[in-house]
Amino acid sequence: MTVDVVFILAGASLLLAVVLPVALSRAAVSAPIVLLVVGALIGLLPLPEGVELTPMANRSFVQHLTEFCVLFALMGVGLALDRPLDLRRLGAWRKWGATWRLLGIAMPLTIAAVAVLGWWAMGLGPAAAVLLGSALAPTDPVLASDVQVEGPTPADGAEQEEIDESDEVRFALTSEAGLNDGLAFPFVYAAIFLATLGPVTEWGLRWLAWDLVGKTLLGVLVGLVVGWVLAKVAFRAPRLSLRLAETGEPLLALAAVLLSYGVAELVGGYGFLAVFACAMTLRSAERGHDYHAHMHQTIERLERLFTLAVLLILGVAMTNGLLSTLTWPAVAVAFLLVFVVRPVTGYLALWSRHDTCRVGDHVLTRGERAATAFFGVRGVGSLFYLAYATGAADFGDSQVLWSTVAFTIVLSVLVHGVTATPVMRRLERARGL
């Protein structure tokens, strides 16, 4: 493959990434589906001798690429959410009731169910089974844009009005995706400790106190502090030249990603949670200001670029041996996760004996609860966790893990990508929107 052909393929792929989100906005086919297919077709072309385009052969590169992709997505999600979360007010916590249910009930049950299926059906060892459950449990903030809130929009120089919060389904899925990518990390560490330190009795208490509670709180705290400082500078700096909200410089969002993530990781907290908390803190400052829309648009473009690279690489790898170790039990686990485990655990989390379920100040109908439970999109975050963990410990079954996770992501992209537009449109009609 010549350099000229590479430039042509890269340019054509980037053009697709720019055009597809708008062209397919009302169609029952998502942009990730098309990009995966394009990547698979590129993978059928002859590659230079000795070049391997699989995650296993390029683990470190895949880890960092997916890491940046998730970071940009988390910042975008945090800036998009208009519903405030004041940690000092119980009423604000109640408005996030659906999110807490999905995080506290659906996510742990999903981890446990997938781990058991991996151990029982696929014959994985305990550490590998826990890693599979932890990697596949979090919903993805990257590939779930079709079922998430759209975010702030420019208001032609004036301060924008509050975004309509009537779509509880989109809010629940967006906020869940923003938080559970960080909250899955303790369970990934549990898998790593099982593989390196042995039985739970050797490390369980330390994991509970530090990896589950301590690092979570530290990550959130760092995000709040960094977001507060940046918001002070952007909106209330004494010098006009430092007041970036007035000059309209949107790259503050990129600085916020790097600063919050870097500081959190430096002090030992969870960087993913720090980025989301930082974005939420920035969004809470001058909530109606047009500057948030500009930052969100910048981050969205960066996220789209990195998502393009990840999906193309995944597509190429699919036709270059990534799925060669896929087994029928692994296929069954993937189908069970998408069609049974997530929908059931999600519905249990939002369960109510009545036709409607009151979550804080909001009400979810039976159909909205079913949709929220079903759209647990798997994606880029799963690839990051798997790359991170397999670089930290030897799980013995890493090739099977890679093929299972990759197949699950492809299945999720296809199923959720095809169903998202018609289902969300039907819910909007039911609400009279």
Automatic annotation (TrEMBL):
InterPro entries from the UniProt entry: Cation/H_exchanger_TM
Pfam families: Na_H_Exchanger
Subcellular location: Cell membrane
Keyword Transmembrane: yes
Main location: membrane
Transmembrane spans: 6-24, 31-48, 60-81, 102-122, 183-200, 212-231, 251-282, 302-322, 328-350, 370-388, 400-423
Domain of life: Bacteria
Keywords: Antiport, Ion transport, Membrane, Transmembrane, Transmembrane helix, Transport
Domain Cation/H+ exchanger transmembrane: 15-425
Membrane topology: Multi-pass membrane protein
Protein's UniProt name: Cation:proton antiporter
